[in-house]
Amino acid sequence: MSRGDLTDQEWRILDLLLPDRGERGPPIPDKRRTVNGILWVLRTGAPWRDLPERYGNWNSVFVRFTRWSKSGVWDAAFETLASLGPPLADKEHAIDSTIVRAHQHAAGVKGGIKIRKRSAARAAASRPKSTSAPTPKATR
Q1: How far apart are CA 21 and CA 31, in angstroms?
Q2: Which H/E stretch holds residue 80?
Q3: Per-residue pLDDT tens digits of the chain, which is 140 residues long
C-alpha cells in the first residue's frame, strides 16, 4: 500500500458504496486498486497516462472513473459518506482558484474587452496602417 491509498477501514466502507461491475463488461478484477488509482490521479493532478502501473492500466482506470461519474456513483457515495457524519466525514476539502484550471482565454475583463469606435474625422485623419504599396501587374 502506498502513501495516500485507502486504509482497510476506509475501503470496507467505500466498497459497499461502489458497484462490483459496470453496465457492461466483466466484473472489476481489483476494485480497490482501481479506486486507489483514481484517487492518485485526483490527488496529484497528473494526466491519466502518468498513472503508475501498480494501479493497473491507465485507460481502464480512466474509463471506470468516467462511467461512474456519468452514472452518479460518486455523487451517491459522497452523499452517503457525508450523511454518516464524524469520524467518517471529518475531512474537509476545498477548491480554490489555485487548483482549478481555466482556459487560457478565460482571463480578462468581465463582459469582454471594451473597444471604442473611432470617429469618422479621426479615422480620416490617421494614416493607413498598411505600408505595402500596390504591386504592378506582370506583363509579357
Answers
A1: 9
A2: helix 73-84
A3: 677 788 888 888 888 888 877 666 677 788 999 999 999 998 888 999 999 999 999 999 999 999 889 988 888 888 888 887 665 555 555 555 555 566 666 665 556 555 666 666 666 666 666 666 666 666 66
Helix (H) or strand (E) holding 48: none
At residue 63, φ and ψ (nearest 5 deg) are -65, -45
Report if pTM > 0.90: no
Q: Is 127 left (phi over 0), alpha (psi -120 to 50) or beta?
A: beta
Asked if 42 contacts 74 with a C-beta cutoff of 8 angstroms, the reply is no
